[in-house]
């Protein structure tokens, strides 16, 4: 006879004792005890279980038995990922206990590693403020970082703690900055462990990101920090750090993983953001030092000798000569070119670039100026105006002054190959602009058209991710104006839209079929699932969670992962479920609950564009930040399709246009009785003899 349905058998294990099997009557235990309903008591039981486990571990991590203490710390590091457990442990003042254990300095090896792991996991829940930690604790964590021979796991967690301290507390930033220098972090970049290198660059980025600038000086200590930041910026500009990152990270004989790519991207953005101050500084026409820069540009271009100041009769002649030369230099205001630099952006940054070009690429500078000054006024490429507009364009391309995206991995290796990479980038592009101007046979009326072509040339070259500035220059050589015209023509032909009435009617007829095909593709992608990254107290977490739709399209399965998966994650390994029928709405961007809660994320436009949330029940929510724009469109389209709503993303519109165009072309070919094979042609076999030459001419 089977046991009653209300009887549950529970096994209870205790260290050092035999396991005990107990039978619990759910009816008598839950309904009649205190008269409370079973679901409430079940919740109480879960909380009590967490509290009991917390209490046991809290006692055991203080045990005099090293074996019991080690096992307890190992379990603590594991269980601390759970928010319910973490809350109970914190309520017992567990964080203070862990910090005291670290400050005591008595634990080493695995014991210290598990202690730091538990600390990181507990703090990542955002329950405890980072401002509560002592200088002694910070010094101890910093000492682990300063010891290059430390255990790798201890070093990794110490770097993670320092990063979180800097990012989450202004006071701790100051204290950490006093304990850690760039010089102490450099040896960790020279190692072979990419994870340690990643955490090291993350700490450098955190120090840069949270460093106050002169616009945020509200107290005397901020000024002290600003001096430190200025020194830090100079160190970053030095060849040592740049070359170490280039040699040991970017050009190391191994693939760069996504997290390292993200940290390199952040470092690239923060380095370029050092230009923001000059970019937003207007030139003061009365500042003699600034005016001298313009005089220097004139002197280098025309090898002009200084006129004697005591010759009053030559003043008018000198003014006339200056005006003529400033016109040749391509300034808009020939009389007072300082007025050309009063617009921000690009402000004084444009003048800095021009002077750098004139001094470090003097022959090219003189050639461009003299070449254009010898042309007719209508056909000359104005160097001054071009430099100002080009600097503004480059700042827009590199997003100078914007916060780094939380999800972007788009770093460019070539910017790590030179100490003055932005200036060199400008020098290459200003020569490209002059070359394109000549190829287009442009006049002054064509200035904006030339700038559009130059921007396209630069963007197309950057997408190839050249490994050096010389390679970037070589890519641009192959992207002449003629080549750009060919590319544009080819793209227009591929995007050709037939506008005749029969074609439009055919489009309208087959559009529902194509939309259904896109819908099925989106749902199939949701069934495959996607790995999402968690964002928490640190800017970017090395934790992941996975979400996928069940094959019958009725349930969303999701759960946490230890690491990023290599393929699909099975349904049965995902702990949580959400019935599709319970979904009330899908919201995006600033309407998402997690975007309203996190002020730092709200400021970042790119994160807002990747955020979406599923709302269910009265207050339930499942929050996402997509890994990229494509996944964002796939998921928002798929969820809207599940709810019977229209798919409105740009990806759907592009897919619809592409598939409609292909279908129409195939049907037109069919009308011409052109046979379309069912299978693609075979791939040609590899040649057995490579001893041949192809004449490119």
Automatic annotation (TrEMBL):
Q: Name one GO molecular function term.
A: SH3 domain binding
**Entry keyword set:** Apoptosis, Membrane, Phagocytosis, SH3-binding, Transmembrane, Transmembrane helix
Quote a single Gene Ontology cellular component term. guanyl-nucleotide exchange factor complex
Q: Where are the transmembrane segments?
A: 40-61, 218-237
Q: Where is the ELMO domain?
A: 289-462
Q: Which domain of life is it from?
A: Eukaryota
Q: Name one Pfam family in it.
A: PH_12
One GO BP on record is: apoptotic process
Record-linked InterPro entries:
ARM-like, ARM-type_fold, ELMO_ARM, ELMO_dom, ELMO_domain-containing, PH-like_dom_sf, PH_domain
What this protein is reported to do is described as:
Involved in cytoskeletal rearrangements required for phagocytosis of apoptotic cells and cell motility. Acts in association with DOCK1 and CRK. Was initially proposed to be required in complex with DOCK1 to activate Rac Rho small GTPases. May enhance the guanine nucleotide exchange factor (GEF) activity of DOCK1.
* Protein name in the entry: Engulfment and cell motility 1
Organism from which the protein derives: Otus sunia
């Amino acid at each position: 006879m089977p046991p009653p349905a209300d009887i549950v058998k529970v096994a209870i294990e205790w260290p050092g004792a035999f396991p005990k099997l107990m039978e619990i009557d759910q009816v008598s235990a839950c309904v009649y005890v205190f008269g409370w309903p079973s679901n409430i008591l079940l919740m109480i039981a879960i909380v009590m279980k967490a509290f009991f486990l917390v209490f046991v571990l809290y006692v055991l991590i203080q045990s005099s038995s090293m074996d019991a203490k080690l096992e307890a710390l190992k379990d603590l590091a594991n269980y601390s990922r759970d928010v319910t457990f973490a809350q109970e442990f914190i309520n017992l003042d567990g964080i203070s206990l862990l910090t005291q254990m670290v400050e005591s300095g008595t634990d080493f090896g695995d014991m210290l590693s598990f202690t730091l792991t538990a600390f990181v996991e507990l703090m990542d829940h955002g329950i405890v403020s980072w401002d509560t930690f002592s200088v002694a604790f910070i010094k101890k964590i910093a000492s682990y970082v300063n010891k290059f021979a430390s255990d790798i796991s201890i070093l990794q967690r110490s770097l993670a703690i320092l990063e979180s301290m800097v990012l989450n507390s202004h006071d701790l930033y100051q204290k950490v900055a006093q304990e850690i220098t760039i010089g102490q972090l450099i040896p960790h970049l020279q190692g072979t462990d990419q994870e340690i290198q990643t955490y090291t660059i993350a700490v450098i980025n955190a120090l840069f990101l949270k460093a106050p600038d002169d616009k945020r000086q509200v107290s005397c200590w901020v000024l002290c920090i600003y001096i430190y930041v200025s020194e830090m910026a100079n160190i970053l500009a030095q060849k040592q750090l740049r070359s170490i990152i280039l040699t040991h990270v970017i050009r190391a004989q191994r693939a760069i993983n996504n997290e390292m790519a993200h940290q390199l991207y952040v470092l690239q953005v923060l380095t370029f953001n050092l230009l923001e101050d000059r970019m937003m500084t207007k030139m003061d026409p009365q500042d003699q030092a600034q005016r001298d820069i313009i005089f220097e540009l004139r002197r280098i271009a025309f090898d002009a000798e200084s006129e004697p100041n005591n010759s009053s009769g030559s003043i008018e002649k000198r003014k006339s000569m200056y005006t003529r030369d400033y016109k040749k230099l391509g300034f808009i205001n020939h009389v007072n070119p300082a007025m050309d630099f009063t617009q921000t952006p690009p402000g004084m940054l444009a003048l800095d670039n021009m002077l750098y070009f004139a001094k470090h690429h003097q022959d090219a500078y003189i050639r461009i100026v003299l070449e254009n000054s010898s042309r007719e006024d209508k056909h000359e490429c104005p160097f001054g105006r071009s430099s100002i507009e080009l600097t503004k364009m480059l700042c827009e391309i590199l997003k100078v002054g914007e916060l780094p995206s939380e999800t972007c991995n788009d770093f460019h290796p070539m910017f790590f190959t030179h100490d003055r990479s932005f200036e060199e980038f400008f020098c290459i592009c200003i020569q490209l602009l002059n070359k394109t101007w000549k190829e287009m046979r442009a006049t002054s009326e064509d200035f904006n058209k030339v700038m559009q072509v130059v921007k396209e040339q630069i963007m197309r070259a950057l997408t190839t991710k050249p490994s050096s500035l010389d390679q970037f220059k070589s890519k641009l050589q192959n992207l002449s104006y003629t080549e750009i015209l060919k590319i544009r023509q080819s793209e227009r032909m591929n995007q050709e839209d037939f506008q005749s009435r029969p074609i439009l009617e055919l489009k309208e007829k087959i559009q529902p079929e194509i939309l259904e095909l896109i819908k099925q593709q989106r749902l199939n992608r949701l069934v495959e699932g996607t790995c999402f990254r968690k964002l928490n107290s640190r800017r970017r977490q090395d934790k992941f969670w996975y979400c996928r739709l069940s094959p019958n399209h009725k349930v969303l399965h999701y759960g946490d992962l230890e690491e990023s998966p290599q393929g699909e994650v099975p349904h049965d390994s995902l702990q949580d479920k959400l019935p599709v029928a319970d979904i009330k709405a899908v919201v995006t961007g600033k309407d998402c609950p997690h975007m309203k809660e996190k002020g730092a994320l709200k400021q970042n436009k790119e994160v807002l564009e990747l955020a979406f949330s599923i709302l269910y029940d009265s207050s339930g929510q499942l929050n996402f930040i997509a890994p990229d724009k494509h996944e964002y469109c796939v998921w928002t389209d798929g969820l809207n399709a599940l709810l019977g709503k229209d798919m409105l993303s740009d990806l759907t519109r592009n897919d619809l246009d592409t598939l409609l165009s292909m279908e129409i072309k195939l049907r037109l070919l069919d009308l011409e009785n052109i046979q379309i094979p069912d299978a693609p042609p075979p791939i040609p076999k590899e040649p057995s003899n490579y001893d041949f030459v192809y004449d490119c001419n």
